[in-house]
Amino acid sequence: MNDMTSVLDSNLDTLFDAHVEPARPAASRSRQVPVRWGSRVVTVGGGAPVRVQAMTNTDTVDAIGTAIQVKELAIAGSEMVRITVNTPEAAAAVPYIREQLDRMGIDVPLIGDFHYNGHRLLADHPACAEALSKYRINPGNVGKGDKHDRQFAQMVEVAAKYDKAVRIGVNWGSLDQELLTQMMDENALRAEPFEPQQIMYRAILVSALQSARRAEEVGLRADQIILSCKMSGVQDLISVYRALAKRSDYALHLGLTEAGMGTKGTVASTAALAVLLQEGIGDTIRVSLTPQPGEARTQEVVVALEILQALGLRSFNPSVTACPGCGRTTSTTFQELAKQIDDYLRAQMPVWKAKYPGVEKMKVAVMGCIVNGPGESKHADIGISLPGNGEAPAAPVFIDGEKALTLRGDNIAAEFHALVEGYIDKRYGVAAASH
Ligand code: SF4
Predict the structure, then answer these.
(1) How far apart are CA 366 and CA 377, in angstroms?
(2) Is the pTM of this model over 0.85?
(3) If you take atom 5 of ligand 1, which residue's CA is the nearest one?
(4) Phi, psi dihedral angles at 105 (to 5 degrees)
(5) Residue 376 CA: which ligand 1 atom is closest?
(6) How far apart are the C-alpha atoms of 379 and 320, rounded to whole Å?
(7) Average pLDDT, the chain
(8) CB crowding 112-133: b at 16 or more within 10 Å, else e
(9) How many CA atoms are closer than 13 Å to the CA of 57, on its beta-carbon side?
(10) 15, 343, 367, 412: which one has the fewest Cβ atoms less than 10 Å from its Cβ?
(11) If you measure from the C-alpha of residue 417 to the centroid of ligand 1, how many angstroms do you get, rounded to a whole number?
(12) C-alpha 420 to ligand 1 mean position (Å)
């Protein structure tokens, strides 16, 4: 026995008495911002669930096309949807988009994304200003020199007049260059100048916090303001948001800007957002994925929901636990079954949300062999352990931790499917809820 082994052994004795702290996000640190449309409201921050939002990529002038995409994003799970408002025509289309959504029964607030000319568009199109529930203002894109403060104030005044929420959204790709230059110059005069990266971080924070203070001076309440400081580097984003959360109690919009496509964009967004959300930082998230050719815009919503669900912050869909497969199973049966069940559960959720309250917390296991299959299936609400290579062609099914029956033959997939449906109806159906 070497020294390492004896140290471990003595520590293991104490483990039985040790309390293992669960990893939980910190309590909410932010003010709550109501985002209203008509008599409806979505709350952001201040203990509200972390909200999911998305942005359209249609031409806003195409009011029908935009309303359809907003509808798709909302059905996928986006609780707020941002649209570009970049021209007078786009501003004129906004009330029609709102009207279309109301007509389709799509209960989601619209956010207007303004750059450069937002002050004019909001002043010239009061119906647009009213139809939007929230304005996104980028302090780096509201005008240069003496126009900067005036145009920023004009937008804030409209928000105050119509009682709208505002996101002050700094983006390092469009950071206020005058502020950055001024801070770089001041840094150069220091006896021990900071690294340029540090100045960049500080300029982003100063731009956001100074703009928020200015918005309050102009007439916004603190509970109308949401801040964001988006960066495209994971470590940059984490550093800046930690600093931002320490220095203010405004609600925070969190997202990695220009995350990229596919796996890269998904992983980078998840890595950045997970660290911050776990620390209780972030009240609404957007995953800025570039859709791959042919990919639906709703993919960014799917990823955002998965991040929140994986962290245990919210539940949206029943989860399917599936093993990765290995040399013990060479058939693809369990992969196909896991995918079928996952697709089926997701497709049903829009209807099930109302019909089967609580079903989003259900856990289903689809496992490939006897090694972990029965154990993992027992931890799920309903699970199946498929036969691996050389095992008897039988698939035990576990319900609520107990072995319920064994499926055999060529029809295992369809039979398990039916068992899942029956389980959902029995456990989450209205009849079950009323007992
Ligand atoms: S459950 Fe079986 S098939 Fe699946 S990964 Fe584990 S050992 Fe491999």
Answers:
(1) 7
(2) yes
(3) 325
(4) 75, 30
(5) 1
(6) 12
(7) 92
(8) bbbbebbbebbeebeebbbbbb
(9) 10
(10) 15
(11) 21
(12) 22
